[in-house]
Specification:
globular; Muramoyl-pentapeptide Carboxypeptidase, domain 2; TRAPPC6/Trs33 (chains A, B); TRAPP_component (chains A, B); Trafficking protein particle complex subunit 6B (chains A, B); four-stranded antiparallel β-sheet; alpha+beta; 46% helix; NO_sig/Golgi_transp_ligand-bd (chains A, B); homodimer
């Protein structure tokens, strides 16, 4: 095998694109599973919930592991806001090649993040039919965010709203520690 | 939200790590599904095959889409060897942050690729128990390679051998076109 071609001039698609495609493939896979299991009819609420939960769990695990790797040599964050800002800037940039477009907070534990062109939704933005599909495409990123926050010491409920692909609004509701 | 922190000095874990974690999570997920479906006993050959086939298909789809994106503005490759070299260098580097360690060919359509530290196996290299698990962890990358080659016009059978994690040997057997 010849020497490296770091200078080959071939544009690297970038692993974040592979991550995108793999997520998209995972959603399609679970959709197919759901359709096969449902005898061809529309999915029941229970079936939707089960698939959502699987995706959310996978997102959670990936988010936890990834943030662990990103932050292991960093000093501790000062407060919740600093953690959420880290999520919106460094975490987002590293995974999605852009930062979020907007972050709002009520300063009482609720944060709203808007990404106008969320990369995990881009492969799906072509097919409107996904909009009806039980929010299967936002379950993984919600888990991803929840996992990242959990690893940084914040318990949270994370939900997503999509009105028009690929724009997404995530809402993070911090859960106060009982200690 | 404050300005970008491209100079924040925080080491980016890199999306290829997220890709790694997501693959690892996908394998764990299918393992869990298999164990739940199998009533706790060892998986049957049919169950193993079904899970392998799901992973291989997902890899195939991702490989196809990814190479499509990587090569859409490139001139056509001259021959099979050039395609395989592209796979070993640019494709590998873009997804796994390294090139393959060794490429051999018999010049009759068989290529053997060795990666001494294959990144998709790194998260699994800690747990020896995975070695017995129906090769679940190599099915996706075999599909990935097959998908990449297919998109570049080469039909192939791709198999993998792992003697010691995370070292892997992929064998590519090109299938001659019947035209």
């Amino acid at each position: 095998l010849q020497a490296a071609t770091a200078d080959s001039g071939i544009p690297a698609a970038g692993a974040e694109v592979a991550f995108q495609f793999l997520h998209s493939e995972l959603v399609s896979f679970l959709l197919r599973e759901q359709l096969q299991g449902g005898g061809g009819g529309p999915a029941t609420v229970q079936q939707c919930r089960a698939q959502l939960s699987k995706l959310e769990t996978m997102g959670f695990q990936v988010g936890q592991a990834y943030v662990e790797k990103m932050t292991k040599d960093l000093p501790r964050f000062r407060d919740d806001l600093e953690i959420v800002k880290f999520l919106c800037k460094d975490f987002w940039a590293s995974l999605f090649k852009k930062q979020v477009d907007n972050l709002k907070t009520n300063h009482q534990g609720v944060y709203v993040i808007i990404d106008e062109k969320f990369s995990l939704l881009v492969p799906m933005a072509r097919g409107k039919q996904y909009l009806d599909r039980c929010h299967l495409y936002t379950a993984f990123p919600c888990g991803l965010i929840r996992g990242a926050l959990t690893n940084l010491g914040l318990r949270a409920i994370v939900t997503a709203e999509v009105e028009e692909l690929p724009r997404v609004k995530f809402q993070i509701q911090l859960v106060q520690h009982s200690t």
